[in-house]
């Protein structure tokens, strides 16, 4: 799985307890896009309409129609899916704020998002404006697709990791890459949990790596992903270069709460580091598993609120840590039933 395989979510992680609500996290990623997502919120709440209309205006009227009336094929194009998922997630957050009194800086302590969701986390924490964010992720999607137009056939594959084999898989991937013929590539794109890893690269490289990991009894099976580009690997360097140029002109504020970086799995300490981390994220591995593990082990975070058009990240958390509390908000009904 890659960006287009995950639900986008400002996820809030909270320390359990009847009174203490000071250790929460928000998580915001690409993947569960569907035509009409967010339409129920748009029709029901002014706050959602303001978000969607602002994003649509920032993209010169090219977003809302694709989100609400376009074809699934058009919406799934990376340049549309990324701003659409970001917009839907922020619309949900704004509705919670205006209708249910949710306050990010009071209810949450940490914010994070999977891949493009990192931009959503920055918007959710006031570090990045919505207008800048949707423009950046539109450019990001275009640049990612363009980066491999002349690179031949590429692929991504989701691996089901056998129990207690994650570290062995990471080491084996280093050896596999060194053994591949010149021009072939297989790199780890996402480490999503102890049982799920995504690899990215050329078709031959990814196929060889998948077969080798299964032969070594490290991976139980592999599932090819229907994606337009091999995200989060070195083939995306041209896209990283494009983002570096674009981010030079973008202003970031200090986030209202700590934002966890995808590439370091640590809180971002300096505002001036944000641009570089977003550039590195384009080619680097999304360290989702390490991010969640560090929140739990170092900061005693065990509760989450996941906002977005799908529940993939929430389901990952529930499977990995069944005793943790994971709340999801994806529809108007979720908003109406909201209790923190």
UniProtKB/TrEMBL annotation:
InterPro entries: Ac_transferase_dom_sf (IPR001227), Acyl_transferase_dom (IPR014043), Acyl_Trfase/lysoPLipase (IPR016035), Mal-CoA-ACP_Trans/PKS_FabD (IPR050858), Malonyl_CoA-ACP_transAc (IPR024925), Malonyl_CoA-ACP_transAc_FabD (IPR004410), Malonyl_transacylase_ACP-bd (IPR016036)
Cellular-component GO terms for this entry: mitochondrion
Catalytic activity: holo-[ACP] + malonyl-CoA = malonyl-[ACP] + CoA
Top EC category: transferase
Pfam families attached to this UniProt entry: Acyl_transf_1
Enzyme Commission number(s) of this protein: 2.3.1.39
Residue ranges occupied by any Malonyl-CoA:ACP transacylase (MAT) domain in the UniProt entry: 30-335
Span list, region Disordered: 1-22
Keyword terms, alphabetized: Acyltransferase, Transferase
GO MF entry, a single one: [acyl-carrier-protein] S-malonyltransferase activity
Highest taxon in the source lineage: Eukaryota
Record's keyword annotation contains Transferase: yes
Gene Ontology biological process: fatty acid biosynthetic process
Alphabetized SMART domains for the sequence: PKS_AT
UniProt family annotation: Belongs to the FabD family.
Name of protein: [acyl-carrier-protein] S-malonyltransferase
């Amino acid at each position: 799985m890659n960006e287009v395989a995950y639900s986008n979510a400002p996820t809030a992680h909270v320390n359990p307890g009847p009174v203490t609500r000071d250790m929460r996290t928000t998580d915001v990623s690409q993947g569960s896009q569907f035509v009409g997502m967010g339409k129920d919120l748009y029709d029901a709440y002014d706050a959602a309409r303001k978000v969607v209309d602002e994003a649509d205006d920032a993209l010169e009227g090219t977003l809302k129609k694709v989100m609400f009336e376009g074809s699934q094929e058009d919406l799934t194009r990376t340049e549309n899916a990324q701003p659409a998922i970001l917009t839907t997630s922020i619309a949900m957050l704004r509705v919670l704020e205006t209708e249910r009194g949710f306050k990010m800086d009071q209810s949450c302590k940490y914010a994070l998002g999977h891949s493009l969701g990192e931009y959503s986390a920055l918007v959710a924490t006031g570090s990045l404006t919505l207008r800048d964010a949707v423009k950046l992720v539109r450019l990001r999607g275009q640049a990612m697709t363009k980066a491999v137009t002349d690179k031949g056939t590429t692929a991504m594959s989701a691996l089901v990791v056998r129990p207690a084999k994650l570290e062995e898989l990471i080491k084996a991937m280093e050896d596999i890459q060194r053994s591949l013929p010149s021009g072939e590539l297989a790199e780890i794109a996402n480490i999503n949990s102890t049982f799920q890893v995504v690899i990215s690269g050329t078709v031959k490289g990814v196929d060889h790596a998948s077969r080798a990991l299964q032969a070594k009894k490290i991976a139980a099976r592999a599932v090819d992903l229907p994606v337009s580009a091999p995200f989060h690997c070195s083939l995306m360097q041209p896209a990283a270069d494009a983002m570096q140029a674009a981010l030079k002109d973008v202003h970031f504020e200090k986030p209202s709460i700590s934002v966890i970086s995808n590439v370091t799995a640590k809180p971002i300490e300096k505002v001036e580091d944000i641009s570089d981390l977003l550039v590195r994220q384009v080619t680097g591995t999304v360290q989702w598993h390490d991010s969640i593990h560090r929140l739990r082990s170092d900061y005693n975070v065990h509760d989450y609120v996941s906002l977005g058009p799908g529940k993939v990240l929430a389901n990952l958390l529930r499977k990995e840590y069944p005793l943790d509390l994971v709340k999801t908000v994806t529809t108007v009904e979720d908003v109406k039933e909201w209790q923190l």
